[in-house]
Amino acid sequence: MSALTTVPKRRRRSIIARVGWPRFLQEIGMLAPAVVLMTAFLITPFLLSFWTAMTNQPLVPRPTPVRFIGLKNFLRILNDDLFWTSLWNVTRFTLWVLPVQCGLAFVTALILNQKIPFRNVFRGMFFLPAITSMVVVCVIWGTLFQYPTGPLNHIVVTLSGGHVEPIDWLGDPNWAMFSIVLLSAWQAYGFQMIIYLAGMQGIPDELYDAARIDGAGRWGRFWHVTMPGLRPTHVFVLVITTIQAFKLYTQVAILTQGGPRSSTETVVHYMVRAGFEEQKLGYASSVSVILFLIVLVIALIQRRLMRRFDV
Amino acid sequence: MSDLALSSRKPAASLNGYRVVQSISVFVIALVVVSPLFMLFIASLKDDRFQILADMGSFRAFWVDNPTFNNFREVGNFAGELAFGRYLGNSLFILGSTVSLGLVINSMAGFILAWGSLPGRALILSVIIALYVIPQESIIMPLLIIVSRAGLSDTFTAQILPFVASPLYTFLFYQFFAQLPKELYEAASIDGASIFRTWWSIFVPLSLPALATVSILMGIETWNQYLWPILITQTDYARPISVAIATFFGQDSIYWDRAMAASVMMMIPILVFYLAFQRWFISSFVGSAVKG
């Protein structure tokens, strides 16, 4: 094709020489909106957060200039007991929600992976809370948690034959976080369930047939075929759930506002309070940098584990 | 079939026992999952907010004697104190604009990244993948500075524009376009079609699965936004229904009847779509997860 051209060939011709101006401009025009918007609303705030974190930036502009204060915000956060309480609370929440939510999702997926009648109907039904807005979930569970005569208390009292006193689900510092766990697991477990189901359906039937020929029973097949085959799925589900759990906000903001006695205070709720209610945006940005670092570490751990299991 | 032959040695009774346990657990899970939702719909048809709470402890929670739409009539105004008609409209407008702009912009970008000839595409792609790890919660404070300095507080724009372009959705489109055959692209360029035309009249019509996935994921995400609109809206003008429902909890005594009706209003649009496209919903969420 290029045998006839007399122009001496360079190793790489510029893009414009290769495709011409009109096409070059079109490509720029098609890519630019996404790049510009992501730069403006994702990259800029992200980079800005590291800068704001080291200033005393208020929410509403003041006549006094914004001062650079170095790592003072971070020192203040690390010396604030409420921050450590919130970090401990989300850790507690994670430790509860992982077994409850993922365990329930796993068991449900195992059942739905069998050839039971109306399996798709059940799958669709169990996924329903996952598409329900958290605000609506809070309205529903706000009534279920009513003290002392709500439905959950009714069930607890009846099942225990009257031996257990009604529980103040959201008002008792010992119960509040557990109640948030119940509601969150109910709302989100459908997502983990369909991920597990997809993972189970990805295990080839031949493996089960081979195990059967080797004389493996139901348990043998579960331990030696299903579980090893699901290893990457387990890693993914656990990591995604952990990241979600560390970002806990909406249900707490609506139902308990971090209370009672800070027993449901979370990192994001702490951040929003500092930035929005106390108007200390610099301080809040420092919290958001810490939150990002936590999420990053979890994501890096996932990448490592995934790589190990994929090989 | 061989399955049956092999397992037939087992006594039938244990197989049945297993089946019974299975059916009971599915039934119990279904009850736990669905009854709170069902209760919500029933309660929204009851007029008396004290009766709603009184009924909760019994089977009356699942039954309504005189269904009435009074609650909906009460909250479904377009102005005034309980302007949930307006809030619902706001939410639908934000949803429609975000998703339609998002489909166009992320699809174009994904296409150029997959088939364009700009230098540095690989770099842009890896930056986009890296951006995916940034949680919205951790940029929301500086975003608040940017958006309010731009004079966009309390606008629809502030709730639409920042979320239109997204690393995940651009990547999903990129992934979909990249696996289409090379011949498709070559045929179009031999015909002399411009790259925009190639995208619009050949690749877009083929990308229905990707369009559906992105619409569903983006739609759910936009519909359920809570933290950002609570920070950025101060008046009724652009307030979405999620924020408005949450204000029921700020009162000393919660009007459960109205809260239930407003919740049903918020749920119905998603529910209708879900019932119509259930299979698509589930495969979209699975598809959003395969990326490691």
Report what the structure shows:
The complex is a heterodimer of chains A (311) and B (292). By secondary structure, chain A is an all-alpha fold. Chain A folds into 2 domains: 28 residues, no CATH class; 239 residues, MetI-like fold, CATH 1.10.3720. Chain A has 14 helices and no strands. The N terminus of chain A is likely disordered. Chain B has 2 domains: 71 residues, no CATH class; 206 residues, MetI-like fold (Orthogonal Bundle). Chain B is globular and about 70 Å long. At the A-B interface, helix 1, helix 2, helix 4, helix 5 and helix 6 of A face helix 2, helix 3, helix 5, helix 6 and helix 7 of B.
Instruction: Assign an overall shape of chain B.
Output: globular
How many structural domains of chain B?
Answer: 2
What structural class should be given to the helix and strand makeup of chain A? mainly alpha
- Strand-residue proportion of chain B: under 5%
CATH domain class of the largest domain in chain B: Mainly Alpha
CATH topology of the largest domain in chain B: MetI-like fold
Oligomer: heterodimer
Overall CATH architecture of the largest domain in chain B: Orthogonal Bundle
Radius of gyration of chain B: 25 Å
List the chains of the largest interface with their residue counts: A-B, 103 and 92 residues
Level-1 CATH class name of the largest domain in chain A: Mainly Alpha
Q: Could you state the CATH homologous superfamily of the largest domain in chain B?
A: MetI-like
List the helices and strands of chain B in order: HHHHHHHHHHHHHHHH
H/E element sequence of chain A: HHHHHHHHHHHHHH
CATH architecture descriptor text of the largest domain in chain A: Orthogonal Bundle
User: Helicity level of chain B, as a percent range?
Assistant: over 70%
How many β strands of chain A by DSSP? 0
Helicity level of chain A: 55-70%
Give a short account of the largest sheet of chain A: none
Largest sheet of chain B: none
